[in-house]
Amino acid sequence: MEQLKTAARAAANERTWSQGVGLARDRRVRGTAQRGDEIELEVRVPTRATAFEVILDLEHQEWQCDCPGREAICSHVVGALLSLAVAAADGEAGAPAPLPTSPHVGGDVRYCIEPAGGGVTIERQIVRGDVVQRLTGSLIAVVTGRTAGPKIAATEADLTADKLLSARGGTVDSDKFERLLAVLASAKDVRWKGQPVTCSAEPLVARAIARDHGPDILLEIARPPELTEIVTVGVARVGTTLQPIAARDLVGARLEHLPMKHLYGHSQWPVLAAQVLPKLSKQLAVEVWTKRLPTLTRGEAPRIELQVTHEGDAISVLPVLVYGDPPLARVDGDRLVQLGNAIPVRDRDAERTLMWRLRDELNLAPGRRVDARGAEAMALSGKLSAWMRKDSKAASASVELTGTIDIDGTTLDLTFSGRERKPGAGETTRQAAADAVVRAWQVGAELVPLLGGGWGRVPRAWLDKHGARIADLLAIRDPDHKVPMHALPELAALCQDLDRPPPAELERLRPLLASFDGLPTPVVPPHVAVLLRPYQQLGVAWLSFCRDLGLGCVLADDMGLGKTVQAIATMKGKVLVICPTSVRFNWERELARFRPELRVATYHGSKRKLDAKAEVTVTTYPILRNDAAALAETPWDAVFFDESQAIKNPDSQVAQAAYGLRAKWRVTLSGTPVENRLDELWSQLHVTNPGLLGGRADFRDRWSDRIGAGDNTAAAQLRARIRPFVLRRLKREVAPELPPRTDAVMYVELDEQERVLYQAIHAATQREVMTVLAAGGGVMAALEALLRLRQASCHGALVPGSGVDRAVASSKLGRLLEAVSEAVSEGHKALVFSQWTSLLDLIEPHLRSAGIDFARLDGSTVDRGAVVERFQDAAGPPILLASLKAGGTGLNLTAADHVFLCDPWWNPAAEDQAADRAHRIGQDKPVMVYRLVARETVEERILLLQDKKRALAEVALGEAGAAAALTRDDLMALLA
Hints:
Layout: H1 2-11, H2 14-25, E1 29-35, E2 38-43, E3 52-57, E4 62-65, H3 75-90, E5 108-116, E6 119-128, E7 131-135, H4 139-143, H5 156-164, E8 171-173, H6 174-184, E9 189-192, E10 195-199, E11 207-213, E12 216-222, E13 229-232, E14 235-238, E15 241-244, H7 248-251, E16 260-264, H8 269-281, E17 285-288, E18 296-297, E19 302-311, E20 314-323, E21 329-332, E22 335-338, E23 343-344, H9 348-362, E24 370-373, H10 375-390, H11 392-396, E25 399-400, E26 402-408, E27 411-422, E28 426-432, H12 434-442, E29 447-449, E30 455-457, H13 460-476, H14 488-497, H15 510-513, H16 526-529, H17 534-549, E31 553-555, H18 563-569, E32 575-579, H19 584-594, E33 600-602, E34 616-620, H20 621-626, H21 628-633, E35 636-642, H22 653-659, E36 663-669, H23 679-688, H24 696-708, H25 712-722, E37 726-727, H26 731-734, E38 741-748, H27 752-774, H28 779-785, H29 787-794, H30 811-825, E39 830-834, H31 837-849, E40 854-857, H32 864-872, E41 879-883, H33 884-887, E42 898-901, H34 908-915, E43 927-934, H35 938-957, H36 968-973
Parallel strand pairs: 5-9, 10-15, 11-17, 18-23, 25-30, 31-36, 31-37, 32-34, 32-35, 33-34, 35-36, 38-43, 39-41, 39-42, 40-41, 42-43
Antiparallel strand pairs: 1-2, 2-3, 3-4, 5-6, 6-7, 6-8, 9-10, 11-12, 12-16, 13-14, 14-15, 19-20, 20-21, 20-24, 21-22, 26-27, 27-28, 29-30
Helix pairs in contact: 1-3, 2-3, 5-6, 10-12, 12-13, 13-14, 17-18, 18-19, 24-25, 27-28, 27-29
């Protein structure tokens, strides 16, 4: 019991465990049965008419519940376990553990069946302990409270039976009674003539026996020997079980036609064996007791025949239990279905052994088709191959497959075929589906199903050399077997491996493969051309080249290098721009400035409507998420995703909406395409060039996990794969005329009271984080637990329940105010960033007290453009308070030359984006960036964590020499 309880505690999350404790505490659990170490309990929840059934297996440490939940463990199992533990603790020492009881569970329903003319009568009684009460009306009405009545522990069977039975009672005819048998099969208490019985939907089948009778064979159809009595028309009793009668048209609704006997002479034996017995076997249990039937086969062992079909990434498997090779007969349930002119003698022990093996090794059952897709299909293919490998006859008869590739332009055809030799039939060519062979190779299988049946041997050596590229190309080719333009470099690499000339279409991509040399000069709108810098001219040429070929791309220039103007210069046709809400006005302004000839519409606001005549439509990511269907209906010539880190999470609704847009050309714009994980890069490239980096699981296996572990080869391979479609330039490389940016750390000493609060929170947080990690929690979950430490480093009033006076400036706020006052007195303008608007709230009154004018920009700001213009004005306020989320991306705030980052954030890219609001094209003054860091706090260690995350982005997009992984040890170092 304790082991099972421990396993359940480890599997349950806090919410599930807490709900289970509540069920146990409220005594919502009742034990119903115990068979050895297997215990059945029912759990009743207040919002449900029927109870959930829980089964606990103490021996095998397993549990199951019939609720629809998908978690590893549900609250009903937790409640059942805890209730059982309490009941065991209350029992006598050495005695079997008593089952828990519940005052919330009502009486059980008893069904009393009595014979009546033309049918039966069924009276329902509610039994609770020694109290028996007749139910005279609708059970559903009582359970739902529409009618007064006793408390009832109704089951699903009881509710279903109530729908079939009349509330007024009376005789139940045979047809309805037969339907009730299937329902009452799971009823708890059924009586026939006052005696307990069970019900079954399994029909009672009469036996047809063929046995020797002198020189002839006697076929006798007799009453089943297990028959006890006929209950009513079509229903019989076998011992204590009520069952429907099968084949009533043949044997009679009351078995009145039986026994039936017929003698078959020698000349009729083939008809008996080949026709009569197979026909009877469809309705009756046929037993052959004679060995004189000429077509009867003996000694034929049963075997499992696997009928496998492949389509795309799906596999369908139908196992069939057969006799003979080729099959003479198949086992269908308890019947033997003839497939030829012979009927084998069944070996039921061998059949059971095969079925058990099929269940244990493949989780399959004869006659039951199983379909799988994707990773599940790959795993199943591997198991099927292993199964066939144990079948020495099948393995030795497998066809040796050879791979053949045919490349015509961008069309890729792959076939796997081999020669099969059969005695007397000569040689035939057999084939296997290419997708199936590649999947089998990926999971390490040796055999693969052939088209039309049989098995082929996977050409492992050939696929070890070419399989990775082949798998990538198969995954992204269209139904006509054409690969997309962005896959041509991979197709060319495969041609090189096979010593074949590259496809002629590759020449069109040559400028992208040659470090962008030779890009044609694009036609640039006049308002833009005069303003473009040389590196921007290259960016426009690259974008235009990709646009004309329909190649998606990622413009990842450093922040402040003018990604917006480069994008605007390449707009052609019907264009959609998706951006953060905070920079929507900036896009509208820049489009009006650089492309005044374009008709621009904004899709925003509660009364938004798409302008069919607009050449450029500007909208935001929240609108994309909410109006995904409407935006997907329009075919766009181009879609630009600004600050595309917004779609970095592939599982998010906004990313899914982005994948669903219809566009000839897709471009993402981001100075930080990788912030925390390489999955973010996969998501953006999946938007621009679906399939370029394979599926998510494949991307993690091939690149993300390996790069995170420091594999420089994997990093180089990833950079080579994405290089033609990603353009990234740094400020120091292409904009040397920019004034310098100086980064400095401004350290702060906590005072005595702040230190005491910090140390107390540190001790509690350290325990919490260690608990999260020990329980298998993720790194991000543990980072969330560090939030209070970071808040205490800034101002104690940010920590809930601390009691710190909000009006008193903390050490960090005091240092900030000194620096801000000095900067303002010297004529500078400054940006003050925090990720917490609550910290900005604390800063505001101190600025007012100091007589310093300021503006503010956060998520609640309505007219962001007006705030920015006011600050940018020379006569505007010298200070702009901004949240990292609202003011950290897409804005031009070059009036400021001082930037203060009040609280270091895990993600250095977010801070760099904020600082680059000031240090960007248009800035004519040196920029000072100050990070305020409290000494001897978690903030100092966050700076080290930032360095590691910068390395992760560099290894994917730059030319860094080493990759670094963020581990749980790194996380614990934050609390050292």
